[in-house]
Amino acid sequence: MNKRFGARALLAASVFTGLIAGAPAFAEAKTDLVLAMSTEPTGLDPTAAAPVAIGQVVWQNVFEGLVAINEDGGIVPQLASAWTVSDDGLTYTFDLQDGVTFHNGKAFDAETAKFAIDRILAEGSVNPQKALYSAIESVETPDADTLVLHLSRPAFDLLYWLGFPAAVMVEPTSVETNATDPVGTGPFAFAEWRKGNEVKLSAWPDYWGDKPALENVTFRFIADPQAQAAALNSGGVDAIPEFTAPELVSQFETKDAFEVVPGTTGMEVVAGMNNAEPPFDDVRVRRALMMMLDRQAIVEAANSGFGTPIGSHFSPSDAGYEDLTGVLPYDPEKAKALLAEAGYGDGLSFTMKVPNRTYAERAAEIMQAYLAQSGVTMTIESSEFPATWIKDVFKDTNYDMTIIGHAEPLDIGIYARHPYYFNYDNPAFDATMTEIANATDEDARLEGYRKAQEILAEDVPALFLYAWPKIGIWKAGLEGMWNNEPVPSNDVTDARWSE
Amino acid sequence: MHQRARGAPARLARRFGFLVASLVGVSFVIFAVMAAVPGDPAEIMLGTSAAPDTLAALRHQLGLDQPFLLRYFDWLSGVLTGDLGNSYTYSTPVGTLIGERLAVTLPLAGLAILLSLAVSVPLGVLAAARPNGPVDLLAALFAQIGIAVPNFWIGLLLILGVALTFGWFPAGGFPGWEAGILPALNALALPAIALAIPQAAVLTRVTRTAVIELTDEDFVRTARAKGGTPAYALWRHVVPNALIPVVTMLGLQISVLVAGTVLVENVFALPGMGTLAYQALAQRDLIVVQNVALFFAAIVMGLNFAVDALYAVIDPRLRR
């Protein structure tokens, strides 16, 4: 009797305490977020190394720039609250935010900004994007809240480049250790990096702007997409902002517990050709090859339909994007005629060096089949990425055709670079890039980009295939994540869990 | 007489000297191969937008502009004094990186070996006790499948079949030992099973064969003639002797196990030596690859040496 009573009391007590303990979980929204990424960053200093994974952890979350790129690819104020550009396009004057401090307590002012920019330009600088800022001739600090950049030539895109991870503001005493212990001005401070496993950030109480809703953010590194999917399914992670295996997406689309959000990135997947060597020095051959490919079919077959076919080297997430897939649409008959006109009526054969990345391998195989239908023999040769590919194709230009995703944001200017691995040389295109640099307002800049896209669509220095999708998958209830990704990033400053 | 004068200690000393010399040779080969592998670490770190002067600055900063032999002796003398250098990409001492990763890989490999022995020895002995009996057939089937199926595939099946269906184990990742012994072991359980199954399959076969061969030996018959039960003869006389080929095979299998950890750690997203090696090679973090490769070589060669020394313990005939 006594015993039975005891058991009941225990049961009742445990139910009661269970309710109390459980109650806060219902009342308060979650403030932790665990994200999965495919690649672990190599160091956490975006001003010292190029891998996009670095920016995908720290950009906007830990480090901020004078300006920022928003989800739509637009330029918005950040540590600079406003700016003016002189009529000749050679002087940029920035008004800096007041009361900003770094995570180590040091203040941010014009001197710090000058330091950060001078450091990019310095001799011996290892900033991966140094070339983008080469128009800056000198930096001046008339007072603590004003920064003036003097340019040697007009470069209207400079504002956009200043929004990049490579141009974030860094604190002078932290530069030696930012790779392992980053110190920025962002809403999250670096907490811990368990190498091979995860990076943890925590909300920084003294942030100058709007405080983030999240308290703790963990970036977990899981290379295998199957393992990523398993981790999401089993609750180990809350979100995969950039899921890399389109064929595994359908399992999440059917479940209410998850949300699948397809968007685009600034990465264009293109099959670059050696434009200096025959047969690719003949524009008729390049156009013919483009017309032999059904881009939508490539996206369907290689990427389960995720991705947007493109007609030029611009992505739908870039401001000023134009759909130019209609310029050289899939038309095998016309393609064959054009190829015959160029003197290859009996067929054509060449080798494609394919980086050992799934998306590239799949697309190459489908391209091979399409080209074969039109009498073009493409031999596939595998190339280890990045190491061998960078040396062989990119540096030594020892290739006929290749295929790669160009992830750098707004990188249409690569076709005006001499040398560059396409060996493409078109004075009209170069002139257009100069027009863009000379622009003094946003409309003129975007107009220039439209013209540049059109030139490339006609001239096809590379076969334009598709813009890489950003397949976001997260638990239902997570809000404020980016749908599109014009700049490689996982900006979680607006992320929050709904009640 | 002569044979006895050069006893086990001298033999071991000679083999140890050989081991050290081999490791130095291996270190040179590793370094030379890494230097010859296409791909410049600086280019990979800076990506496709880097200007030539930026590249040169980084190569200088990393010491990559030094002559080959100088770099080799720099590395070797560092290794000998315990300074393995700084990872190019992580900007962290390589010794620290390897230490952190060993805390995952060593327990994982140890767990896999224990599991494989715990399954294979009893199974092999029971199979041999009744050749063509039901246990023997089961063991044969297990061995057949275990040898045929690669361990990373077993890993994927375990994730899909066990982790996601029942939720008893995490589907990947590692909470760290600071999260407690149980969560850590829980995270290592499925990968250890994935590593252990192919190994257990091989060892089951070896155990079975060894036991069957020994059952007909004179000393076993003698033991039974003196009135020992079959079980006594088996466990007291046959099994200890059968362990010699099992341990030999285990020693030979270490390199397979080491290779297996690379794949299995990647499947389960475990931050071990395998993932470190894989990632570092892809990024041409050559200093890390060199040290990890040398470490793996030292482990494989050292364990073979240890197995050699173990014979003397297991087999009294070698102990003179």
Number of helices, where a helix is a run of at least 4 consecutive DSSP H or I residues of chain B? 13
Tell me what portion of residues of chain A adopts beta-strand conformation.
15-25%
Number of strands of chain A: 20
Task: Compute the CA-based radius of gyration of chain A.
Answer: 26 Å
Task: Report the helical percentage of chain A.
Answer: 25-40%
Strand content of chain B: under 5%
Distance separating the two termini of chain B? 11 Å
Largest interface: A-B, 44 and 51 residues
Tell me, rounded to a whole number, the average pLDDT of chain B: 86
Listing every helix as H and every strand as E from the N terminus to the C terminus, the arrangement of chain B reads: HHHHHHHHHHHHH
Distance between the termini of chain A: 46 Å
Describe the structure.
The complex is a heterodimer of chains A (499) and B (320). Chain A has 499 residues and is of the alpha+beta class. Chain A has helices spanning 2-27, 52-58, 110-121, 158-162, 225-233, 250-253, 283-291, 295-303, 332-341, 358-373, 387-395, 427-438, 442-459; strands at 32-37, 67-69, 75-77, 80-85, 91-96, 136-143, 146-151, 188-194, 198-203, 216-221, 239-240, 258-272, 308-309, 348-355, 376-383, 401-402, 404-406, 462-475, 478-479, 496-497. In chain A, strands 11, 12, 13, 17 and 18 form a 5-stranded antiparallel β-sheet that branches. In chain A, strands 1-10-9-8 form a 4-stranded mixed β-sheet, with no helix packed on it. A 4-stranded antiparallel β-sheet of chain A has the order 4-5-7-6, with helices on one face. In chain A, a hairpin with a 5-residue loop joins strand 2 (67-69) and strand 3. In chain A, helix 8 (295-303) packs across helix 10 (358-373). Chain A is globular, with a radius of gyration of 26 Å. Chain B is mostly helical and 320 residues long. Helices cover 78% and strands 0% of the residues of chain B. Chain B has 13 helices and no strands. Chain B is globular. In chain B, 39% of the residues are buried. Mean pLDDT of chain B is 86; it is low at 1-5. The interface between A and B is large, with 44 and 51 residues.
